[in-house]
Structures
1.
Amino acid sequence: MSRQYIDCREFPSTMNCSVALSADTEGELLDAAVQHAVSVHGHADTPELRKQLATLFKTGTPPVQAPAQQKVPA
Ligand SMILES: [Zn+2]
C-alpha cells in the first residue's frame, strides 16, 4: 500500500493553513483529515465532508515546497 497525503496548502483558506497530513492507509488519513477539518477549520464531521476529503487524497508524500495555489496576495 502506498503512502497517501492531503495538503492544506493546496486549498486557499482564510487562515492560510500550511498543514499536510500523510498516512499509509486511506482510513488513517481520513480520520486525521476529518479531525483536522473539524478542529482547525470548523467543519462538521458529516458523511459528505468525509466523502469530499477522500477525493482530495494524493499518492506519495507532501512536497517540501508549498504547491501552487490560487492565494490572494496579502
Ligand atoms: Zn488545514
2.
Amino acid sequence: MSVLEIRDLHVTVGEGDDAKEILRGVDLTVRSGETHAIMGPNGSGKSTLAYSIAGHPKYTITGGTVTLDGEDVLAMSVDERARAGLFLAMQYPVEVPGVSVSNFLRTAATAVKGEAPKLRTWVKDVKSEMDLLEMDPAFAERNVNEGFSGGEKKRHEILQMRLLKPRIAVLDETDSGLDVDALRVVSEGVNRTREEGEVGVLLITHYTRILRYITPDFVHVFVNGRVVDEGGKELADKLENEGYAAYVKDSKETAKA
Ligand SMILES: Nc1ncnc2c1ncn2[C@@H]1O[C@H](COP(=O)(O)OP(=O)(O)O)[C@@H](O)[C@H]1O
Ligand SMILES: [Mg+2]
C-alpha cells in the first residue's frame, strides 16, 4: 500500500524577473489501487505538475510538499524517485540517440530494482509485454524515441511502466496523438497494471476520450495552477458536455478579487 501526497504545492518556472508561478497550491492524494484523472484546459499547469513530481530542473518548488509513503520526494534525485516507485510518462518524451529500446529498458529496470533482472525471464517478459501492446519485436532494436510515431512513443512508455512495475504512475497526455487502435492497446496496458492492484495512477488528460477505456475512480478539474473541483467519473461526462469554460471564468474572477 503506497500513498503519494501533494500538499499546497507551489511551483514557478523561469528565473529572476521572468519567474512565473504556474502551480498555485495543489493538493492531491493518490493511493495504490486508485486511478485519478486530472483534467484541465491547455496551459493550466498539468504538465508542470508532472514535471515537478519528476524533479525536472526547470521547475522551482517555492512551497508545499510531495511525499511518497511519508518520504520527502522533493529531496530525492530523479533516480531516487524512480527507485522509490514513481514512474512518470511525459507528454513529450525525449530521444535517446544511440540507445536501443532493449538496452534502455534493461538499464532502467536495473536502476530501479538495484540489480540486473535475470536475462532469461527478462527477455521473456519484454517479449510478452510487447506482444500484448501489439508491438513488432524489431522495435526493441530501435533507438529510444528516434523517429517514433505518436503511437510508438506511448506504447514504449506503457511498456516501460509494465516492466518497471511502479507504485505510483503519472501519465501525462498518454492519449494525445493516438488513433483509436493505439488508444485501446495503450489503455489495456494501463488497465492490466490496475487489475494487478498495487499501483496508483495519475492520468493527466485534456480530453475525456481515454476515460472511455480507463475508468477513473476520481476526477480532479485543474484550472490556473490548482484543483478547482473534484468528483467521481461522472464529472468527466459533465466536462465532456460542458467543457472548462465555467471553471476558467470562475478562476479569473477569484484571481482578480
Ligand atoms: N519550461 C517552461 N518555461 C516557460 N514556461 C513554461 C515552462 N513550462 C510551462 N510553462 C508555462 O506554464 C504554463 C502551464 O504549462 P503546462 O504545465 O505545460 O500546462 P498544461 O500541461 O496544462 O497544458 C503555460 O503558460 C506554459 O507556457
Ligand atoms: Mg501538458
